[in-house]
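Lab meeting, action items carried over

1. Structure of the two-component assembly. Owner: GW. Status: complete.
Input record:
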Amino acid sequence: MSSGSQIFYKGAILALLFSGIFPQIFSQEDSLFHLEPVSIEASALRQQEVGCFAKDWRGEALKQYSHASVGDLLSTESGAFIKTYGGGSLATSSIRGAGAGHTNVIWNGLPIASPMLGQLDFSLLPVGFVDELQLQYGGNTALWGSGAIGGTIIMNNHLELKPSISLEAQLIRGSFGQKDYQTDLQYANKNFGLRIRSFQQESRNDFFYELTDNLPLRQQTNAYYRREGILQEFFWKTNSHHRFSLHTWLQNTYREIPPTMVQNRNEAFQEDQFLRLSLNYRGLLGKNLLRGKVGYFHEKLDYQDPLILLSSQSQFQTILGEVEVEREVSKHKIVGGLYLNHTKAISDGYQEPPVQNNIALFITDRFDIKSWNQQISFRQEWVDGNWVLPVISWGTRKAFGNWGELNAKISRNYRLPTLNDRFWAPGGNPDLKPESGWSEEINLKLSPFESRKNIHYTIGLFNRNIHNWILWSIRDGENFWSANNLAKVWSRGIEQRLKGETDLQDLKISLEAGYHYTLSTNQETIRNPKIEAGSQLVYVPKHQVFGQIGLQWKDFQASYQYRYTSAVNTVNLDILPHYHLAHLRMNYQWESSFISGDVSFQIDNLWDVPYQVVERRPMPGRSFLAGVSFRFENPS
Amino acid sequence: MKSTITFFVSFMLISLIQGQTNADFENFGLPVDSFLNGSDMSGGFYSGNIFLENDFDTMFNAWQGWAISSMRDTVTPGYMNDLSAIAGSGYNGSTTYAVTFANSPSILHLTNGAVGKAVKGFFITNNTYAYLSIRDGDGFAKKFGGVSGDDPDYFLLTIKKYKDGILSQDSIDFYLADFRFSDNSQDYIVKDWTYISLESLGDVDSLQFSMSSTDNGMFGMNTPAYFCIDNFVTRNVATALEKGFERKNLAVYPNPTESIFYINWEEPLAGKMIITDVLGKQIRTTQLTSGRNQINISSLTDGIYTLSVQGEKAGYYSRIIKK
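Predicted assembly:
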């Protein structure tokens, strides 16, 4: 083991020990106070911003994806386009026609995207480690910082401090050698809680796929992956005024890189390791509600390709913190905060390990003008002492009785250049400007049947212009690729949702459907890379339809999910055809006094559709998953 | 070994008799499995009566243009092995050959008595990186033929000449790989040294080598734009008759420059300086007089240019960076 790995593992073990010992030190019960299990990561002013269109997943909605990644969930249910290279492989996002670096991902209040790439691999985020997932559509830099242009994904962890102890174990077997083991141990009294979750997944992933109609199927090779992770959390409520939580997330992923459909073989593989540690606090100080969090993230990527004799290692360490104060002044609810970030990265691609320091101040104010809710937010950031352009957002909301609600928002947003954009050799450009632009959106939510309020229809429009979009390109007079502020991109679209539920005696029926139309076009012609003005961005589908029908009869549940993705442009100037996908899931739950359980069966790609999300990267046909879980609970 | 020596001696004698010069790159004396990629900042390589430009970027540790190689690796795919010929040696088992990365067109300059005269031809083969990428595909490029083997793919080298600063429209096409045959068994990727005659081009000052492929993306050609050459034979007054003709690098300063640069021309007679862009297109012609010459290039767009100066007894080359 290299010295770097030793440091990594020592740090991880220390972190785990620390978070394990902590509850024993403070395990004194205080029966005088009780706190509701509410979020301590961020203010409602940030998570439920006026004018912002958002979708949340909790409880059962998350549990059915417990074996899957956040990327799988989002691609099925959110209308976000997840660009996945295949099972277990890299998965990045495009929300509202933006790029992979235009999604900010927040874990327990802190951004976790790689500062080297400015994006996150969604295949490395297990849903089983998330208690609350939210997707905020649209620009939100003023509240969440750099990168929140297409959308913001917020992942939180909670534990209800209700005296109990429980253990849950889940076992899943599936096609292509998929195995998935998960455990979840929870202990809580009125003041303290400890939760330890772990998972291990592996799959040969050696599915057969179709090359052409008249050729035999080809079996995927070099596609094995294995992931294992542990999330250990400690929750501590000192009294009704102060609450702490400590989260330690350690994960390791080994995955082989399969050949493309036009490649005979590949032997490359990569290993991703990360440690994410965050300490969160929420407390009342007089009339102020104070939230604070500090985090330490250490991520390593080791890429090896024995065939071409390539070995590439990179890693970064980030220490970051944020404090926010919330209080009411007159009829204004105000949150102000300070964000700090110190990042250091090491890679073969840097001549010197870059170090970057960010400081940001933000403030948001929610108030009413007559019956219109208003929220104005502002953020000013400095990078290595240099001013970044200030950003502002304004949102408004108006409720019309029980039948309707109008939301609108306008915001200025930016994305800072990544460390690779600035310092990679060759081609890094330290003088890059941030990508920036304005976003506007409006949406109307209707509940047309007052007596049946569980039917909702939402229609929204959005518009966004981004300037100084960073592209790696060959400039006139140069003969190498470099990062430049080249592109201007105009994105606009329509989003529609329909959601309803009804009961037919013991049978509950739920329906959810959505349609997103997205135009995201380059506004200028660029020679190299070859981009035509007016062309749709690569890997941004114009049409996406998604929906699911759910049935629940007593302890039996079934759901049918459908997704349509229209054709997309690709980097090889080809058009990747559209595809329809469907998934079927059934499960049966039972419960007795101390034990409950769940048996599930799932068919993915039900109609065995050959398709590619990324060109030349085949996706599996019909596959099966069967799972069983047991939960032992002893309330005390 | 003995037969090889006999061959070369015979070849050189024939060349001298016929007024030909063979650029075989053996003059660099490379041991096997080594290369010259311009990291010595020489700016290029002379062999026979040709000059091959090289642009080495110290910051990025990367080369453009041409390199000289004796690498023999025919099995390792990928860009880490971009200096090997798939034939495993130079032409006819010789040690040394030249490699070019022609993502943008590569230029080969004739020198000395070969300038302005017809060119006989040269031997060519695929670079190992390109060959294995075409055969097997890689993370960026497709294997030729595609998933079915029926895609009509090709990897094409197009050779054009410059004469008196004008790029001719006439060209010679050579397929380094051709999968356009209806019978897939006829599909081929060049693996051996293959001769290309250039005599149809007529009189030549320099040659432009452009590459194209059927596998392209928004970032350009996916097929690795490399090939290797050896035994480039020019038709000229034999070098034996040109005793005293020197080949030097031109002293240019300041370099890079925003507008003005100077050349100290030490020859007693006037020289003719030609500035060409990276595509080999002639941008400007200037007469140099003995002494210090001031050249203003403020009107040129920023970029890298080649200076070639032909004197009575010497040829000079250099790069100038306008920024």
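2. GW to write a short summary for the group page. Key points so far: The first helix of chain A runs from residue 3 to 25. The mean pLDDT of chain A is 90.
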